[in-house]
């Protein structure tokens, strides 16, 4: 086989076989196919696409370049949840202990933030002492004993994805639905959980800017999962505006804690109930969505999700006192208030602008490996649909020195106003199964 032929055939829109895709991925990983040929092939895929069968074969080949993490020795139903990334998305912090308290085993490998989107690992690291690089042994024993274990991708399960992603990043080929689907699902399949729910974000702050792309991505990922014999569903959820009110690492941990204690923002609670009930159903712990929601609410109202969160923090070396008293989490030295220039209803809050503002303040990174500041970020005082008077607070910026003026301008511009209440928009667009 020659890489040249596979590039030419994909350029011309031909379908590649399982054997050809396997050869390409392994030859690339072994250095027999150079970066320049792989880059040309990726660009051909960007324009010509891959069908569902090719995408599944590509994913399978990527998974086979590494190890599988077998969880079958651990009793109970093992589940995983994945988000395609958003602004203010602290769902894992709330949902992982919540599901564990409901009787599931939550096994999760998470990433760091990049660009305007945050990452669960950065958020967890804002808890003093919290270890995010678990060994396989620690990961497995914690999963069995506590019911929840979240690690960074410290044991690289899919080496092909690392190498391919780095190449896509510098060749403008990240934004391809089949390449994203294969990348995400290769990591999900390497961690052998029994059930998986995918939170596919759509809107200004998401990778998928419109519903068409979100549907394609969700359907393709569900299809890959099913072909591999997994129980999987995808929930397409809104990312036009930030989720909850807090954007920034320690600020989001604080909001997650409030949510676990029963005082969280409505949209975050609703998203957790939606994703969680899909998983409870898939895991066979509930017969219907209604029953699953009731079970989850019961666990939450009894305070068991909050107790499980503390148990999880302790197991990963985090200071429990800092989550019991969030004033002990990292704190920014200054706060600035952005006030409303108008009187009216908040019509929109641009998630991308808020995410960018938080990144510029230091909460996120432009390039992989950049340091971040756990304390800084944005707290939204006004949400879409709220009535605000001129001069009323729209947002609070928790800042150090970095990027303050630029962030202030971005946050101020993120808000738009109208005389009429904006029509309600759904948080959950659809469930793909
Ligand atoms: N996240 C991933 O893991 N891979 C992609 O390609 C895009 C987002």
UniProtKB/TrEMBL annotation:
It catalyses: uridine + phosphate = alpha-D-ribose 1-phosphate + uracil; 2'-deoxyuridine + phosphate = 2-deoxy-alpha-D-ribose 1-phosphate + uracil; thymidine + phosphate = 2-deoxy-alpha-D-ribose 1-phosphate + thymine. It comes from the Bacteria. The keyword Glycosyltransferase applies. PROSITE patterns: THYMID_PHOSPHORYLASE. One of its GO terms (biological process) is pyrimidine nucleoside metabolic process. Signal peptide: none annotated. Residues 345-418 form the Pyrimidine nucleoside phosphorylase C-terminal domain. Its EC number is 2.4.2.2. GO terms for cellular component: cytosol. InterPro entries: Glycosyl_Trfase_fam3, Glycosyl_Trfase_fam3_N_dom, Glycosyl_Trfase_fam3_N_dom_sf, Nuc_phospho_transferase, PYNP-like_C_sf, PYNP_C, Pyrmidine_PPas_bac/euk, Pyrmidine_PPase_CS. Keywords: Glycosyltransferase, Transferase. It holds the Pfam family Glycos_transf_3. GO terms for molecular function: 1,4-alpha-oligoglucan phosphorylase activity; thymidine phosphorylase activity. Homodimer. Belongs to the thymidine/pyrimidine-nucleoside phosphorylase family. Catalyzes phosphorolysis of the pyrimidine nucleosides uridine, thymidine and 2'-deoxyuridine with the formation of the corresponding pyrimidine base and ribose-1-phosphate. This is Pyrimidine-nucleoside phosphorylase.
């Amino acid at each position: 086989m020659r890489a040249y032929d596979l590039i030419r055939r994909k350029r011309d829109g031909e379908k590649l076989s399982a054997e050809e895709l396997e050869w390409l991925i392994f030859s690339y990983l072994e250095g027999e196919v150079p970066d320049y040929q792989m880059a040309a092939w990726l660009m051909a895929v960007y324009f010509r696409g891959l069908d569902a069968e090719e995408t599944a074969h590509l994913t399978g080949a990527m998974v086979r370049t590494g190890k599988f993490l077998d969880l079958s020795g651990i009793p109970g139903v093992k589940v995983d949840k994945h988000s395609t990334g958003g602004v203010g998305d602290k769902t894992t912090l709330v949902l992982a202990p919540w599901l564990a308290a409901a009787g599931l085993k939550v096994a999760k490998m998470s990433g760091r933030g990049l660009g305007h989107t945050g990452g669960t690992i950065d958020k967890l690291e804002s808890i003093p002492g919290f270890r995010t690089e678990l060994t396989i042994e620690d990961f497995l024993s914690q999963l069995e004993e506590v019911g929840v274990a979240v690690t960074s991708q410290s044991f690289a399960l899919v080496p092909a994805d690392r190498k391919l992603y780095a190449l896509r990043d510098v060749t403008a080929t990240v934004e391809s639905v089949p390449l994203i689907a294969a990348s995400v699902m290769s990591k999900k399949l390497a961690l052998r959980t029994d059930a998986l729910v995918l939170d596919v974000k759509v809107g200004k702050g998401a990778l998928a800017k419109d519903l068409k792309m979100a549907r394609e991505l969700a359907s393709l990922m569900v299809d890959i999962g099913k072909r591999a014999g997994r129980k999987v569903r995808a929930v397409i959820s809104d990312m036009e505006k930030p989720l909850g009110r807090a954007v920034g690492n320690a600020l989001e941990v604080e909001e997650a804690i409030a949510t676990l204690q029963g005082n969280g923002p409505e949209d975050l609670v609703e998203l957790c109930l939606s994703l969680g009930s899909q998983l409870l159903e898939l895991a066979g712990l509930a017969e219907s969505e209604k029953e699953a929601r009731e079970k989850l609410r019961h666990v939450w109202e009894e305070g068991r999700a909050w107790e499980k969160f503390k148990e999880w923090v302790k197991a990963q070396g985090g200071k429990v006192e800092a989550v019991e008293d969030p004033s002990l989490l990292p704190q920014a030295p200054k706060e600035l208030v952005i006030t409303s220039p108008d009187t009216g209803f908040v019509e929109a809050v641009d998630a991308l602008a808020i995410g960018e503002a938080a990144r510029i303040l230091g909460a996120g990174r432009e390039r992989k490996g950049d340091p971040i500041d756990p304390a800084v970020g944005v707290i939204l005082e006004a949400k879409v649909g709220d009535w605000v008077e001129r001069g009323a607070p729209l947002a609070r910026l928790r800042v150090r020195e970095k990027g303050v003026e630029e962030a202030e301008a971005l946050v101020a511009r993120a808000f738009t106003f109208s005389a009429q209440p904006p029509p309600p928009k759904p948080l959950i667009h659809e469930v793909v199964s």
